[in-house]
C-alpha cells in the first residue's frame, strides 16, 4: 500500500510537470499584449539597437548602429547597399549581431520570446504556391500555436483586414504581386504583434491598394503599435510619417522628422522658390543676408539657396513686409526625403 501511495504521488508530480510544460501552448492563443511580462520589460522600447555591428566576412553590413523605437511609424530609407536589409534581419532575429545588442520589448531579438512580439512582412515572396491565400494564413496561425478554431478566426479577420476576402480562395501561384503583398501582411498581423517590420510593403500595390495600406498602417499606429517601414516609395512614405531613419554606408545617418534633419544640414543650403512682383529688387536685398549663398533671378521668380532655414524665413518675412513686396508663393524645393537622402549620401548618389 505504501509503495502504491508513493507511485500515485510520483504520478501526480509527473502530471503536474507535464501541465507546467504545456502552459505556454495554453496561453499562446491570447494576444501578445495580454501575455505576462517581467516588470523590467513593461516600459522597454519596442525595438532597441545598442552599438550594433554585423560583418559578412570582410564586408561590414551594419556599423555601430544605435536606434530606439517606441509606438508610432518610422520610415527606413537608404540607397541599395546602405544596410537596410541587414538592419531588418537583425530586428527580426534572423541574424545575430557580431557586436552590440538588439532587443525587442526588452528581450534579446534572437530569442523566441522576442519573436512572439514581432510581425514581419518581408520583401521576398516565400509561399506554398499550391495553397490558397486563406489556407496559407491559417497555416501560419497554426504554426504560431493557436488552436484550429482560433487560428481560422484570426486568419479570416486578417484576410478581411488587408482586403483579400473576395480573392483568398484562389491558389497563390496565380496571385499578382499586389495580392501577394496583402497575404504577407495578413500573415504578419495574425498574432497581434506589438512591433511590425515591413520591408517594401508598398511594392507592386496599385494606387487604391496603396491608399488602403497607408490607412491601415495609420490605424495600427493609433492602436499603440510600433511600425518600421522600409520603402523606396519616398513620396508615399512622407504621406504616412515624417519620422524617418536614414541609413548610409551601414550607419544611421540621421533620425527624426524631415524638418529636424533638414535643420541639421547647415553645410547644404536649402533651395526656396519665391514668386514675387519685383524679383531683382528682392534678390538684391536677399544677397545682403548672412545665410543666403546664392540667388537665381527669373522673370517673376527667384530661387534662393540659404542656410539655416528658420532664420532665413524670418528674415525673408521681415524684408517682404518692410519693402512691401507682393509675394504670390514661397515653396521649399528640396525639403523632402529625396533631397535629404541625396545630401546625406553625398558622392555615393552622384
Describe what this molecule looks like in 3D.
Helix 4 crosses helix 5, helix 4 runs parallel beside helix 6 and helix 5 crosses helix 6. The N terminus is likely disordered. This protein has 2 domains: 211 residues, P-loop containing nucleotide triphosphate hydrolases (Rossmann fold); 85 residues, Alpha-Beta Plaits (2-Layer Sandwich). The N and C termini lie far apart (88 Å). Strand 9 and strand 10 form a beta hairpin. The protein is an alpha/beta fold and 350 residues long. The longest helix has 26 residues. It has a 6-stranded mixed beta sheet, with helices on both faces. It contains 12 helices and 14 strands.
Structure in a nutshell:
This protein has 350 residues and is an alpha/beta fold. The chain has helices at residues 2-27, 84-91, 112-115, 133-143, 148-161, 177-189, 207-222, 234-240, 258-264, 279-286, 309-323, 337-345; strands spanning 47-56, 59-69, 72-77, 99-104, 107-108, 118-121, 195-199, 226-230, 243-248, 251-257, 270-276, 292-297, 301-306, 327-332.
